[in-house]
Amino acid sequence: MAPNDIDLLTVQRGLVIAPAGCGKTQLIVEALKRHVEPKPILVLTHTNAGVAALRNRLEKAKIRPSAFRLSTIDGFAIRLVGMFPGRAEIDLVKLTVERPPYPEIRTAACNVLKTNRIYDAIRATYSRLLVDEYQDCSYWQHAIVYYLSHVLPTCVLGDQLQAIFGFGDDALADWQEHVGGHFPVAAELTTPHRWINAGAAELGQWVLAARGSLLSGQTIDLRQSPSTVEWVQLDGSNGDRPKQLKAGATKPHTPDGNVLIIGDSTQPRSQQLFASQIPGATVVEAVDLRELVNFASQLDLTAADAVHRVAHFAASLMTGTSPDDLIKRLATITSGRSRKDVTELEQLALDFQAAPTYGGVAALFAAINNQAGVRVHRPAVLRACFRALNECAKADGPEFREAAVRAREQYRMAGRSLPKRGVGSTLLLKGLEAEVCVVIQGDKLNAKNLYVALTRGSNKLIVCSKSPVLPVVT
Q1: Cα–Cα 20 to 30 A to 208, which of 50, 324, 361, 374?
Q2: To 10 degrees, the CA torsion angle through 335, 341, 346, 352?
Q3: CB 71 within 8 A of CB 108
Q4: Is the pTM of this model over 0.90?
């Protein structure tokens, strides 16, 4: 059987090495399609966005829901600990707080799993275990899967070169020692289906070859690449910005195609600025929507600067706005020095100052959005903000912060959608693919982040950097 034809249902305990774009998700889909046993397969991954994306893929393939149980590893751990609190040795209150102590929950789950007293219950519930994106497993998440693999036939799928996530004190499991030491390699996928399906097989083969170079510690020379790879030379001058913006405005391969623009992971503000300066671009947001929650936590409707906070937060989500000009106009109007008619936006702001409400905040956002020349470049945050404001504006509605947290959780569970022209980091864009990928600062990416960036575009790749030889950082 060829590596790409491996049947995951035949793996008793093993690892499938799955480079990006080589059909890993389709393998999972096909396995679940063939599964006919009465007990479901337990399918685990890492993020709620990953769960949402995989569930959507399974629904499109019309996989019967009874064939699988899909969850994050941490979600599974929480349910397991909740069922066996005594053996878990953890306070159940910790499972329900806004920010659960996941490292403690993972350890507690291992306390439950390392005893064979629940093995019969697990066998009676599931037929086998599949774990996706295994390179993202922390040490204690790997420990959970390790114990489960003693009870269920287990196949894990992943790619060590895509291990770009971190877990704070709970570090990633070592690929060689922990993963390879317990899960022998069952197969390695070698066919670049993503690029073949897009009619760009040469680009796909180049990406696979680049992966091999990066794994062996070698560099990649962008000058020795197919025509579908373009290097934009930067020199550190003020002329770099126009080059990067021009690259970011590259048209997709087809009229309905998409473009992903990868910025600096350490500077979210720079990603937002790029999105505001590239026509049609929007920001791919982190799932924590931290700025929205902070805004909701800090907004005091009775404070003298409430309208100032609202206007400036709106300006962080939309281009073409001038919050300082609005505040100056309000001062001019209230002092009786205005010689111009009051606009609809200014009147709404005056009404808000006179009688501040959450409904008034929403009305201000809507009015700012309706101004000529204004464009929303952070639509996910604005939509979540409207949702939260509408909730807390209801009679007996929650506090604004609570409503914002709820909106954030809805966004987290729904997963990221692919925008027409999205700007983000490798951390945010991993798992997404588009016809064109533009890397704004290739010099700032280490080998793993560079590989993730190289694999996002199915038809064209544009890399902006001072040097054509990458990576330049370790």
Answers
A1: 50
A2: 60
A3: no
A4: yes
Task: Locate 399 and state its tokens.
Answer: 């506090």
Number of H helices, E strands in the chain: 21, 16
The pLDDT of residue 4 is 53
- Distance separating alpha carbons of residues 216 and 194, to the nearest angstrom: 24
Instruction: Give pLDDT, residue 413.
Output: 81
| Strands of 5-87, DSSP E | 13-17, 41-45, 68-72
**What percentage of residues in the chain have a pLDDT greater than 90?**
84
Query: For position 98, what pLDDT does the model report?
Result: 77
Predicted pLDDT of residue 167? 62
Q: Which positions ≥6 away from 85 have C-beta within 8 Å? A: 92
Contact 144, 112 (CB under 8 A): no
All residues at 6 or more sequence positions from 42 whose CB lies less than 8 Å from its CB, including other chains: 68, 69, 71, 76, 125, 126, 128, 129, 130, 148, 152
What pLDDT is stored for residue 2 in this prediction? 42
Q: Which helix (H) or strand (E) holds 28?
A: helix 24-34
Q: CB under 8 Å to 425, separation ≥6 — which residues? A: 262, 263, 264, 265, 268, 271
Residue spans of alpha helices (H) in 114-265: 119-125, 139-148, 180-182, 193-197, 201-215, 240-248
User: Which residues are bridge partners to 118 per DSSP?
Assistant: none
How many whole angstroms from its chain centre is CA 370? 29
Residue ranges of the chain with per-residue pLDDT less than 70: 1-5, 167-168, 474
